[in-house]
């Protein structure tokens, strides 16, 4: 049994102007000790998916329109408030993008970590355990730093404190939502290294949300690419980066500037992501797709398995890849 | 003659211990920086947060006043101009900002955001102004019929296009682009980088392109300058700098960039700690406390000068050696 299994999850945001479907039949699986990356551009639904795992999306305006989220075999959507409390920050811990906003500015960081311990491991809610956790995430002089307020720490140190807090409950799943986006690259490298190291030592599963395909290449075992509320491609990370199948994944990779290739022509993707209230009929990527055919705008393609590892939501992905290879050969 | 010639520019900010108490210390944001930009070329400026790259970009346009040093634009000393004279010269050098949400007035239609520059420099009025705004919007890839819309009706990428149209309105020779693509999604980022390149080819504009993303900078720049704690630590042709960096900081910075290409994944240099505060910069080489190659006592005692290690490749490190590119 996988640690986490999301099956056909749909979520609507309802407002006075009507409902929009933010997640459309999302299915994901994550095993213990594995790293899954959710990739996509702003507004594609990756954060909403991640927050749904502990049912952290405020309802209203959000309403689950179908599907299930099985965490250790139990459906999170059916849990009562007490069971949810054990999941939130317990089995599943979160690390968010902006550590300076996530930490409470008026409490010492040690006290904030202890609070998490009091809730999830009350017997070990001691100063020694706080110091041990700070040491685990690589904070120098942890006894002193525990008495600091968040503003006294740099962004990288604050993110380490957030991770220490997330680890306090000994979670089975760590959800990291753009954990390094607010940090400089040298600090980002430190934090990614720390996450990899912690995963090996503690055997947690990690769901990492990012828009940076370079980070995917560094840490992911498997990847799910999202576009406009749907998963459009799922594959092992190395396969996806070497041989992307969906035209959106291909276009996304072609937009990433690479180091040591100054002459690389960046193709970009024409147009913008559609708003959820005005989704195109048929394939949601069709209006921006360079290999779209007339039939693409008639019917929403299904996410179909290509082989036992990969699934893609494009019936013409073979043709798309051929034309890309031809172009590459020409160039 | 260079289009822009910056000599020994230093910018300091006072650090006030309290609201009404006078400054007792200074933060040197830009320390003795010199460089040139030729007409129509792009100089990339990279570095981590707090290294002084934004302050340098602003000081070049005299949006912040430098403490010492001079800035020459087309042979004229910008740093010696009176306010009025400076205002007239600003037509020649413009700026594009990072945040496409914060840098456009939400109460102005696009027509006025772009047209205001024309009004200030008295370049076009009435029907001519309307026509020129339409041309500018078309030049940045926007439909001229959007002219009477407001910023909130546009996406981030479209807003950045409006910011670029505004800078273009006065036909500048130099645009300082301060992180113009870092707030954008990668597919949109590529669109904007391509637009900037195309505009450069068509109008011969020079860019000072500030960014923290090395790959973007390499893609758009001819030369690249790396800053650390207010100082330039390395400067070279883009390709040479990225392929064979001489300064240990540049080496670590490049190795920290997560790479999509499995073949190019190299040994990563993880720097210990954070960049020190520029209020208390370390003595000697500013990078020595984090440097994997630092040697006592030289690195902690002696400030390395920016010297030419190979023709056209400058580095400020005692131990930098030239490598063939």
Keywords:
heterodimer; A: 331 residues; alpha/beta; 4-stranded antiparallel β-sheet; B: alpha/beta; 8-stranded mixed β-sheet; 12 strands
Give the arrangement of secondary structure elements.
The complex is a heterodimer of chains A (331) and B (325).
Chain A: E1 4-15, E2 18-30, E3 35-39, H1 46-52, E4 62-71, E5 74-75, H2 81-87, E6 92-95, H3 99-102, H4 109-120, H5 127-136, H6 142-145, H7 155-167, E7 173-177, H8 185-202, E8 205-210, H9 213-219, E9 222-227, E10 230-236, H10 237-242, H11 247-255, E11 304-305, E12 311-312, H12 317-330
Parallel strand pairs in A: 3-8, 3-9, 6-7, 7-8
Antiparallel strand pairs in A: 1-2, 1-4, 4-5, 9-10, 10-12, 11-12
Chain B: E1 4-15, E2 25-37, E3 42-46, H1 53-60, E4 68-73, E5 76-77, H2 83-89, E6 93-96, H3 110-120, H4 126-139, H5 156-168, E7 174-178, H6 186-203, E8 206-210, H7 214-220, E9 223-228, E10 231-237, H8 238-243, H9 248-256, H10 298-301, E11 307-310, E12 313-315
Parallel strand pairs in B: 3-8, 3-9, 6-7, 7-8
Antiparallel strand pairs in B: 1-2, 1-4, 4-5, 9-10, 10-12, 11-12
Overview of the molecule:
The complex is a heterodimer of chains A (331) and B (325). Helix content of chain A is 34%, strand content 22%. Chain A is built from twelve helices and twelve strands. Chain A has helices at residues 46-52, 81-87, 99-102, 109-120, 127-136, 142-145, 155-167, 185-202, 213-219, 237-242, 247-255, 317-330; strands at 4-15, 18-30, 35-39, 62-71, 74-75, 92-95, 173-177, 205-210, 222-227, 230-236, 304-305, 311-312. In chain A, the strands form two sheets. Chain A has an eight-stranded mixed β-sheet with strand order 6-7-8-3-9-10-12-11, sandwiched between helices. Chain A has a four-stranded antiparallel β-sheet with strand order 2-1-4-5, covered by helices on one side. In chain A, helix 4 crosses helix 5 (127-136) and helix 4 (109-120) packs parallel to helix 7. The model of chain A has no long low-confidence stretch (mean pLDDT 89). The longest helix of chain B is centred in the middle third of the chain and has 18 residues, at 186-203. Chain B folds into two domains: 4-221, P-loop containing nucleotide triphosphate hydrolases (Rossmann fold), CATH 3.40.50.300; 234-325, no CATH class. The two termini of chain B are 27 Å apart. An eight-stranded mixed β-sheet of chain B has the order 6-7-8-3-9-10-12-11, with helices on both faces. Chain B has a four-stranded antiparallel β-sheet with strand order 2-1-4-5. In chain B, 46% of the residues are buried. The A-B interface holds A 41-42, 154, 156-157, 184-190, 192-193, 211-218, 238, 241-242, 251-262, 264, 266-270, 272-273 and B 48-49, 155-158, 185-191, 193-194, 212-216, 218-219, 238-239, 242-243, 252-262, 264-265, 268, 270-271, 274-275.
